[in-house]
Write a structure and sequence with these properties.
Length: 347
């Protein structure tokens, strides 16, 4: 049986950072990774390096809404291609859910689907929780509480931020899920041996509602009618992507992050992107933001793929795409004009 682990956690809680670090661990060789992103453009696969024996599958949209048609079909296809030798002989599967996923339908499919049970076994659920914003997220989003409640391992991330204390969030998580092992990780740095090989998934010791959530999905009609309309996140949370062929100035990035933090606040649940910077075209900048917290750009040593366009993904409430596009254009035009003026003055 091939073990399947699910990495879940709310938007911006550090799932991709954790997975990227884990995939550098030699013990994670021959691991197939399925990444589910909420939005039209996938970025996470460009931020994760795998060995020659590993590979990445992608799916966009809400995985929990399409659990029968997408996840089960993907896993069945992977198993068939593995048997034929057209895929590397992977020995583990890791599924990274979108930050808005309700994990219960995903877990139910992995535990009960007849076509999968002879090949795969649900090994465990790993949930990331942001040390800085986790308490607020748990207060405001049911998805976050469910993600914590179903976990075998809870990873508290961003513990390296100055002034962050984890005592309160640990106590709260222990109440939500008494059976989960809670570990801390700075920059996703945690050993794979701590997180994987949990054994067959068991609701014992977890929040008492977990069994009910899984039982609720036991009726096939629940899958058939589990549409986007049934999710609160689709009613008031929207996603859009901005793609630019023309590189941005480095100063534009700093101005953009400041403007987003000042004007969007908690309405911008998640922003992430890979940016072609005019002053350093061979090394893309990766930017991340969660609500009012924006991190300094991280410079990759090289472009991870042939696609060198700037790609920015925004997920939030009441954040207009037209406003963000105009903001970027105005900021970059202003920076360009100032650069020309400075060059003329010093010539």
């Amino acid at each position: 049986m091939i073990p399947v682990s699910v990495i879940t956690g709310f938007l911006g809680s550090g799932k991709t950072t954790l997975l990227a670090r884990l995939m550098r661990d030699p013990s994670m060789g021959r691991t197939a990774v399925i990444i589910n992103e909420f939005g039209a453009i996938a970025l996470d696969h460009d931020l994760i390096e795998t060995s020659e024996e590993s590979f990445i599958q992608l799916s966009n949209g809400c995985l929990c809404c399409n659990v029968r048609s997408d996840l089960t079909r993907t896993l069945a296809d992977m198993a068939a291609r593995r048997a034929l030798g057209t895929l590397p002989p992977f020995e583990r599967v890791v599924i990274e859910t979108s930050g808005l996923a309700d994990p219960a339908p995903i877990l139910h499919a992995l535990m009960t689907d007849r076509d999968l049970n002879g090949v795969y076994a649900l090994d465990g659920v790993i949930t990331t929780v942001d040390a800085l914003l986790g308490s607020t997220t748990l207060d405001q989003h049911e998805e976050s509480r469910r993600q914590a409640a179903v976990a075998d391992r809870i990873v508290i991330t961003k513990t390296d931020i100055d002034g962050v204390r984890t005592d309160a969030i640990k106590k709260r998580l222990a109440i939500i899920n008494p059976g989960a092992q809670i570990v801390e990780a700075a920059s996703g740095d945690v050993s794979a041996s701590v997180l994987f090989d949990c054994g067959f998934y068991d609701v014992t010791g977890k929040h008492p509602d977990v069994g009910a959530w899984l039982a609720h999905n036991d009726n096939d009609s629940a899958h058939e009618h589990h549409s986007h309309a049934s999710h609160a996140h689709t009613g008031d949370i929207t996603s859009f992507c901005i793609v630019r062929e023309v590189p941005l100035h480095a100063v534009t990035l700093s101005l953009l992050l400041s403007a987003l933090a000042e004007n969007c606040g908690s309405d911008l649940l998640r922003m992430k992107g890979i940016v072609n910077v005019r002053e350093n075209p061979q090394r893309p900048a990766v930017i991340h933001g969660v609500q009012h917290v924006y991190h300094a750009p991280v410079w990759l040593p090289r472009w991870p793929s042939a696609d060198r366009r700037t790609r920015l993904v925004f997920i939030g409430r009441n954040v207009r795409e037209s406003w963000v596009r105009t903001l970027i254009d105005l900021l970059d035009a202003e920076v360009a004009a100032e650069t020309v003026k400075h060059s003329r003055a010093t010539a």
